[in-house]
Amino acid sequence: MVIALARSVRSLALKIASYGVMHLIVAMLVAWAITQDWRMALAIGFVEPFFQTIAYSFHDRVWHRIEQRRRRSGMEETAEAFTARLDVMNAEEQARAHGHHGHTHALPSFRKIAVKTVTYGIMHLIVAVAVAFAITQDIRQALAIGIIEPLVQMVFFAIHDRVWTAREARRAKEAATQAA
């Protein structure tokens, strides 16, 4: 059990580290392709992920607070649902009081997930443009880097994730074969 846990932690750490290296390389290559200056590309490649991490932590904290507020209002909803089940509040009163017909808010809706994703994308774009502009002092290059780099990162993230999923599946199959 302990060995399996250690392997899992080690695998996760390797996955995170390899993603970090990939992010760094992709950011540098995109910056170099646009600026044709390897010094700027290195600077953007090292600085942009640092500020993205800070921005992500702020974004995540804001969304965490939003979710806390939703959970608090969910307690009120639970109380209303409980009283409705006891026939203290009929369905009409419950719908009027809460604006819906008894559906749950336990899982985030597609709309909420989409809004969170879009706000993260906008934040990523703003940080990438700001870092690129601070280094290049050229708004056209900064906009190009800020728009292209996140799109290229998405493609490489998908490839990276597929490689790691295949690696984990292969390891699980090998472990099952050894156990048998």
Report on this model:
The chain has 180 residues and is mainly alpha-helical. The chain contains five helices and no strands. The protein is flat and about 55 Å long. The model is unreliable at 101-106 (pLDDT under 50).
Topology as a string of helices (H) and strands (E): HHHHH
**What's the total count of β strands?**
0
Strand content: under 5%
Low-confidence stretches: 101-106
Mean pLDDT across every amino acid position: 81
Q: Tags for this entry?
A:
single chain, 180 residues, mainly alpha, 88% helix
The gist of it:
This protein is mostly helical and 180 residues long. The protein is built from five helices and no strands. Helix 1 (2-35) crosses helix 2, helix 2 (38-85) packs antiparallel against helix 4 and helix 4 crosses helix 5 (139-179).
